[in-house]
Amino acid sequence: QVQLVESGGGLVQAGGSLRLSCAASGRTFSNYVMGWFRQAPGKERVFVAAVSRSGGVTNYADSVKGRFTISRDNAKNTVYLQMNSLKPEDTAVYYCGASRYSTGSVYHERYDYWGQGTQVTVSS
């Protein structure tokens, strides 16, 4: 019973930074593993990053490792994705998801709730 709303997307030049936020409604936010996925035009939705319920464990796709940082603030019911050194290939709609499961966070099928998405466009 979680409502998710992403924000923070926009247009940025290559090499720039952007921070996405995902605000959750509900009293059980800390019960969910939170993840970010992205989908470029004509391509499948792919895993970007995930963070454990307490925020102590993170997982990243190889394509963003070292550039992106996922974090969460359970007191604010919010998960973040800090994106640095952005590349044109990062251009996509970014989606926030919430999962009941402790494993399989890289698979979109494991997520129970999704936000509406926020557009990120990186120009060269």
Description:
This protein is mainly β and 124 residues long. Helices cover 0% and strands 49% of the residues. It has no helices and 11 strands. Strands 2, 4, 5, 6, 9, 10 and 11 form a 7-stranded mixed β-sheet that branches. A hairpin with a 6-residue loop joins strand 4 and strand 5. It is globular, with a radius of gyration of 13 Å. The N and C termini lie far apart (40 Å). The model has no long low-confidence stretch (mean pLDDT 96).
What share of residues are in beta strands? over 45%
What is the structural class? mainly beta
Q: Determine the fraction of residues in helical runs and give it as a percent range.
A: under 10%
Number of helices: 0
Question: Topology of this protein?
Answer:
Elements: E1 3-7, E2 10-13, E3 18-25, E4 33-39, E5 46-51, E6 58-60, E7 68-73, E8 78-83, E9 92-99, E10 113-114, E11 118-123
Parallel strand pairs: 2-11
Antiparallel strand pairs: 1-3, 3-8, 4-5, 4-9, 5-6, 7-8, 9-10, 9-11
